[in-house]
Amino acid sequence: MARQEPPREIGRATWTLSHLAEQLQAQCDRLQQVSGEAVRRLLHQARIVYRRAKGWLTSPDPRYALKKHQRDRLLRIARQSADGVAVWLDESWFVRWPYWFRTWVAQGKLITVPQRWNEQVDTTALFAALDDESQQSLVHWAHGQPNSDEMVVFLDMLTAHYAAQGKRFIALFWDKAPWHTSKQTRRWIHAYNQKAKRTGLPRLIVCYHPTRSPWLMPLEAIFGWVKHQVLGGRIFKTVIALQQAVERAFQQRVVQAKKRHDKAVVKFLAATCQKSRSVL
């Protein structure tokens, strides 16, 4: 009865202990009186607890399973190759005004977060590339919000960085942001791979995540943690001070997650140890 939806005459979407007791007494003639505490004990013996539902986000992409499989396959190849590297790339923009945050406060006292009106506020965009193996990051700041011009500049920095390390290919994982899928960015990637084929530079293999699947990007959680846990209610006088604080927090968060990341990689490779054909 507890696992079923209550009748409409109760007027609730979920059961209460008193309603369960009334329904149980109505269905069982031998029970003259049942209390809510008795029902709670019965549910406890049956290992049924009262819990709050959590939101579950899913991707609307009809080819999510296929794209996820292709992404995992490329990630496995990059992790197992000594001359290859897997890189997570994402962007986020920051403002000097404080973000919503949680903190300890005396009971009955309210926390206020200063907000701005319609005046222009300095914004800055952080381009970040996270090395999957070493967990070292390459960052680039741009004025305003991300765009294709700054995206091309950062990709040039990224490829030069791994060319100096002697890598043969770069598996780049990112979402379908407009500056990732723009003609300018795709033309640059095509021209770079043609040049890499002639000159021996590391090839750039791009993998787009399924539509609306932020849980596949580890940088999403880092950006959110930095905004709400580190910036919090702080107001920065200059954009440079904001950028310095974000970089310190970003590096700190990556270092803290290194042990969990290494365990997850070992588990990932053990679960997907089947042989795959090369994509190069």
Which features characterize this protein?
280 residues; extended; five-stranded mixed β-sheet; disordered C terminus; 2 domains
CATH superfamily of the largest domain: Ribonuclease H-like superfamily/Ribonuclease H
Q: Residue share in helices?
A: 40-55%
Backbone CA Rg: 26 Å
Low-confidence stretches: 275-280
CATH topology of the largest domain: Nucleotidyltransferase, domain 5
CATH top level of the largest domain is: Alpha Beta
List the strand order in the largest sheet: 3-2-1-4-5
**In the CATH classification, which architecture of the largest domain applies?**
2-Layer Sandwich
Count of extended strands: 5
Shape: extended
Concise structural overview:
The chain is an alpha/beta fold and 280 residues long. The protein contains 9 helices and 5 strands.
Polypeptide structure, described:
Strand 2 and strand 3 form a beta hairpin. The protein has a 5-stranded mixed β-sheet with strand order 3-2-1-4-5, sandwiched between helices. The C terminus is likely disordered. Helices cover 43% and strands 14% of the residues. It folds into 2 domains: 56 residues, no CATH class; 208 residues, Ribonuclease H-like superfamily/Ribonuclease H (Nucleotidyltransferase, domain 5). Helix 7 crosses helix 8. It has 280 residues and is an alpha/beta fold.
